[in-house]
Amino acid sequence: MLRTRLISAAIMIVIVVGGLFYLSTPGFALLLALVMAAGLWEWSRMIPLATLPGQILYPLLILVLLWQLQAAGLASSAMPLLWAGLGFWVLALLYLPRAVVATDHGLGSRIIKSLAGVLVTVPAWAALVLLHGRATDGPFVILYLLVLVWLADSGAYFAGRRWGRRKLAPVISPGKTWEGVYGAMVVCTVFAVAVGLSYGESLKQAAGLLVVSLLTLMFSIVGDLLESLMKRQAGIKDSSNLIPGHGGVLDRIDSLTAAAPLFFLGLHWLNL
What we know:
This protein is mainly alpha-helical. It has one domain (2-270). Helices cover 79% and strands 3% of the residues. The protein has a two-stranded antiparallel sheet. Helix 2 (25-46) packs antiparallel against helix 5, helix 6 (138-163) runs antiparallel to helix 7 (178-199) and helix 8 (203-234) packs antiparallel against helix 9. The chain is globular and about 55 Å long. The chain starts with a helix and ends with a helix.
């Protein structure tokens, strides 16, 4: 099992590094669209869309949407999409503390979850593609975001195991604790300050990066919790077994889907 996890992790690292630093932005957009389509296929099974044609058609329709956005010029149409994505995650933040693990698979529930899947993946795709297209530092900015999300997850895990007492969301994810959140904040603060002071042009820019990073951390936790809720309602442990030893695509990118739109908008607003 450990060997399988390590091999899968090595392959994912090669894909991520290759996609970031060796693909053009259109090529990166295509690769990322395929990743999001795989995630949407997993999402369709959690909605659930009961028939195989529905599970295939759902991500294909979103792939067509992403192609249309790219063809029309993403920079000119992305901002409303990104704000819609941010609004969705704010609503998720307000909803999740009151969420219950229900098994309502009626038409209304499936429509809402289908729309939610679009808002989970499409704004994140747009944010990452726009970040990649930055004139001088796009791939490095995305790498910063990926490391930030990974550090948040790792910091929360180890702090939660060592000091965890108070449950963050016992109904949705019993293993997560407030102490884990505080641990993630400490780790991400150190990382953001170190990067900000090393590469920022002023203390103001470093402070701005820290604020954006901590907000990004908060939203990454919301993304993790939303997918956990979807899996609990679907009665499954992993979103799929597409990645041997790691579960599904959504299990790897759930935090990133919530973090990316806010991170992009934060950098854009602060002109970083």
